[in-house]
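Reading is simple: each integer encodes one residue's backbone shape. The lines below illustrate:
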Amino acid sequence: MAVPNPTDALKLGFIGAGKMAESIARGVVKSGVMPPSSIRTYHRDASRREAFSSFGVTLYDLNDKVIEDSDVIIFSVKPQVIKEVVLQLKPLLTENKLLVSVAAGVKMSDLQEWAGHSRLIRVMPNTPAAVGEAASVMSLGESATKEDGELIANLFGAIGKVWKADEKLFDAVTGLSGSGPAYIYLAIEALADGGVAAGLPRDLALGLASQTVLGAAAMAVNTGKHPGQLKDDVASPGGTTIAGIHELEKGGFRGIIMNTVLAAANRSREFSKR
């Protein structure tokens, strides 16, 4: 006998139909967590409406209708407008609706005040959600239940991996995983440039750099070995790898990466204080 899926009877609404919302919706549908007929959103832009309707999502002509016809509402609007949007919709945001925010730098306490209740979950995903490899961190509001948390972990698990953490850690999360993809893109570009400098054609250098980063990350995730051990496994005595590592250490590579994360985390703290 098949075990019923707890999301089967639920309706999921998106307030804000940008790229992140699309990535979440597509992941949820692709993974079979929810059918597209259970997802709804609204957007004025024709291209965004087409993006969602192309895989079966229901489109409404007002955010009010999305709220009224949803059990779980994900706010995926820009941080600078979320207060205005939530306050406008507040009369419809009853406590029988689970509210989720993916707006960076917007505190749970502010969301609770604007929405009028604390059945909220804050989630910090990152852009690899677009390819199903997001690193997402979630924190539950005062009235959110264990079942609410499991539901949202299931939804965001459709676009990558999910961790739970206290909201006080979210600025650090932003500095690491929120901004982190950009740091890795710079590293890939630099590796490719190094390959070109060493004589490789650009396309080959970029392909090798991208696949090398992907493979190294997979090794770190799947082997259970500490990154230092994986590094040692590649660096043979007097070899090419240790010569390259020596140059990284002379340039303060690890300190630069640590300072980069700290700078982004501190900037996130500045935003959250506004």
